Amino acid sequence: MTGFHIEVSRLLLPYVLNGYLPTALLVMSSWISFLVSADMVPGRMALLVTLLLMLINISGQASAVSPTRNKLDALSMWMLACTVFITAALFEYAYLLRIIYHGCGKALKTDGNTGSREMARCKVRMLLHILCAN
Protein backbone atom coordinates (compact mmCIF):
# COMPACT_ATOMS: atom_id res chain seq x y z
CA MET A 1 0.00 0.00 0.00
CA THR A 2 1.24 3.42 -0.88
CA GLY A 3 0.09 6.87 0.10
CA PHE A 4 -0.51 8.62 3.34
CA HIS A 5 -3.39 9.46 5.64
CA ILE A 6 -4.04 12.92 7.11
CA GLU A 7 -6.33 13.31 10.07
CA VAL A 8 -7.53 16.81 10.93
CA SER A 9 -9.36 17.45 14.16
CA ARG A 10 -10.64 20.44 16.04
CA LEU A 11 -11.41 20.95 19.69
CA LEU A 12 -15.10 21.71 20.07
CA LEU A 13 -15.10 22.53 23.78
CA PRO A 14 -13.83 26.13 23.39
CA TYR A 15 -16.58 26.86 20.84
CA VAL A 16 -19.22 25.39 23.11
CA LEU A 17 -17.99 27.16 26.25
CA ASN A 18 -17.30 30.56 24.62
CA GLY A 19 -20.01 30.70 21.99
CA TYR A 20 -22.93 28.32 22.11
CA LEU A 21 -23.51 27.99 25.86
CA PRO A 22 -23.43 31.70 26.81
CA THR A 23 -25.69 32.74 23.95
CA ALA A 24 -28.16 29.96 24.70
CA LEU A 25 -28.29 31.17 28.30
CA LEU A 26 -28.85 34.72 27.10
CA VAL A 27 -31.80 33.65 24.96
CA MET A 28 -33.25 31.68 27.86
CA SER A 29 -32.78 34.74 30.07
CA SER A 30 -34.75 36.81 27.57
CA TRP A 31 -37.72 34.50 28.17
CA ILE A 32 -37.88 35.98 31.68
CA SER A 33 -39.08 39.20 30.07
CA PHE A 34 -42.35 37.45 29.21
CA LEU A 35 -42.97 37.00 32.94
CA VAL A 36 -42.35 40.67 33.78
CA SER A 37 -45.48 42.81 33.83
CA ALA A 38 -45.99 45.05 30.81
CA ASP A 39 -46.41 48.02 33.16
CA MET A 40 -42.77 47.74 34.29
CA VAL A 41 -41.32 49.41 31.20
CA PRO A 42 -37.83 50.32 32.51
CA GLY A 43 -37.13 46.88 33.95
CA ARG A 44 -38.29 44.89 30.94
CA MET A 45 -36.61 47.21 28.42
CA ALA A 46 -33.36 47.26 30.38
CA LEU A 47 -33.33 43.47 30.51
CA LEU A 48 -33.91 43.01 26.79
CA VAL A 49 -31.57 45.75 25.61
CA THR A 50 -28.80 44.56 27.93
CA LEU A 51 -29.19 40.99 26.70
CA LEU A 52 -29.10 42.16 23.08
CA LEU A 53 -25.94 44.19 23.66
CA MET A 54 -24.27 41.27 25.45
CA LEU A 55 -25.17 38.97 22.57
CA ILE A 56 -23.74 41.39 20.01
CA ASN A 57 -20.54 41.62 22.06
CA ILE A 58 -20.17 37.83 22.28
CA SER A 59 -20.91 37.52 18.57
CA GLY A 60 -18.22 40.06 17.72
CA GLN A 61 -15.67 38.28 19.90
CA ALA A 62 -16.53 34.91 18.37
CA SER A 63 -16.17 36.21 14.83
CA ALA A 64 -12.87 37.89 15.70
CA VAL A 65 -11.22 34.67 16.89
CA SER A 66 -12.65 32.38 14.21
CA PRO A 67 -11.07 32.14 10.75
CA THR A 68 -12.54 34.37 8.06
CA ARG A 69 -14.71 32.78 5.37
CA ASN A 70 -16.95 33.86 2.55
CA LYS A 71 -19.76 31.63 3.81
CA LEU A 72 -21.69 31.54 7.05
CA ASP A 73 -20.40 28.93 9.44
CA ALA A 74 -22.44 27.16 12.12
CA LEU A 75 -21.40 29.53 14.90
CA SER A 76 -22.36 32.62 12.87
CA MET A 77 -25.74 31.14 12.01
CA TRP A 78 -26.27 30.28 15.70
CA MET A 79 -25.42 33.85 16.74
CA LEU A 80 -27.76 35.22 14.08
CA ALA A 81 -30.60 32.99 15.28
CA CYS A 82 -30.02 34.05 18.91
CA THR A 83 -30.03 37.71 17.85
CA VAL A 84 -33.31 37.18 16.01
CA PHE A 85 -34.92 35.59 19.10
CA ILE A 86 -33.91 38.41 21.46
CA THR A 87 -34.86 41.08 18.91
CA ALA A 88 -38.24 39.36 18.45
CA ALA A 89 -38.83 39.54 22.22
CA LEU A 90 -37.99 43.25 22.08
CA PHE A 91 -40.41 43.85 19.20
CA GLU A 92 -43.09 41.80 20.95
CA TYR A 93 -42.85 44.09 23.94
CA ALA A 94 -43.01 47.19 21.74
CA TYR A 95 -46.14 45.81 20.07
CA LEU A 96 -47.66 44.98 23.45
CA LEU A 97 -47.04 48.55 24.64
CA ARG A 98 -48.66 49.90 21.50
CA ILE A 99 -51.74 47.76 22.08
CA ILE A 100 -51.99 48.73 25.73
CA TYR A 101 -51.50 52.47 25.37
CA HIS A 102 -53.04 53.14 21.97
CA GLY A 103 -55.66 50.40 21.76
CA CYS A 104 -56.97 51.19 25.24
CA GLY A 105 -56.83 54.98 25.06
CA LYS A 106 -60.38 55.48 26.33
CA ALA A 107 -59.69 53.35 29.40
CA LEU A 108 -56.59 55.40 30.23
CA LYS A 109 -58.52 58.69 30.22
CA THR A 110 -60.99 57.62 32.89
CA ASP A 111 -60.06 57.82 36.54
CA GLY A 112 -61.04 56.03 39.72
CA ASN A 113 -61.78 52.35 40.20
CA THR A 114 -63.89 52.13 37.08
CA GLY A 115 -60.88 53.27 35.02
CA SER A 116 -58.65 50.52 36.32
CA ARG A 117 -61.38 47.93 35.74
CA GLU A 118 -61.93 49.24 32.22
CA MET A 119 -58.18 49.12 31.59
CA ALA A 120 -58.04 45.51 32.77
CA ARG A 121 -61.00 44.58 30.56
CA CYS A 122 -59.42 46.32 27.60
CA LYS A 123 -56.13 44.46 28.13
CA VAL A 124 -57.95 41.13 28.30
CA ARG A 125 -59.91 41.94 25.12
CA MET A 126 -56.72 42.92 23.29
CA LEU A 127 -54.89 39.82 24.47
CA LEU A 128 -57.78 37.58 23.40
CA HIS A 129 -57.83 39.36 20.05
CA ILE A 130 -54.12 38.61 19.54
CA LEU A 131 -54.46 34.99 20.62
CA CYS A 132 -57.54 34.35 18.48
CA ALA A 133 -56.03 36.04 15.43
CA ASN A 134 -53.41 33.30 15.16
Molecular structure report:
The protein has 134 residues and is mostly helical. It contains five helices and no strands. It has helices at 13-30, 41-65, 74-103, 105-109, 113-133. Helix 2 (41-65) runs antiparallel to helix 3.
CATH class of the largest domain: Mainly Alpha
Give a quick account of the main beta sheet: strands, pairing sense, barrel closure: none
Give the strand tally.
0
User: Element order, helices and strands?
Assistant: HHHHH
CATH architecture of the largest domain: Up-down Bundle
Number of helices in the DSSP assignment: 5
Q: Which structural class do the helices and strands define?
A: mainly alpha
The CATH superfamily label of the largest domain reads: Neurotransmitter-gated ion-channel transmembrane domain
Low-confidence stretches: none
Helix residue percentage: over 70%
Shape: elongated
- What is CATH's topology name of the largest domain? Methane Monooxygenase Hydroxylase, Chain G, domain 1
Q: What's the number of domains?
A: 2
**Mean pLDDT over the residues:** 82
Give the amount of beta strand, in percent: under 5%
Distance between the termini: 65 Å
Rg from C-alpha positions? 23 Å
Briefly characterize the structure.
This protein has helices at 13-30, 41-65, 74-103, 105-109, 113-133. It is mainly alpha-helical and 134 residues long. It folds into 2 domains: 12-65 and 72-90, Up-down Bundle (Methane Monooxygenase Hydroxylase, Chain G, domain 1), CATH 1.20.58.390; 104-134.
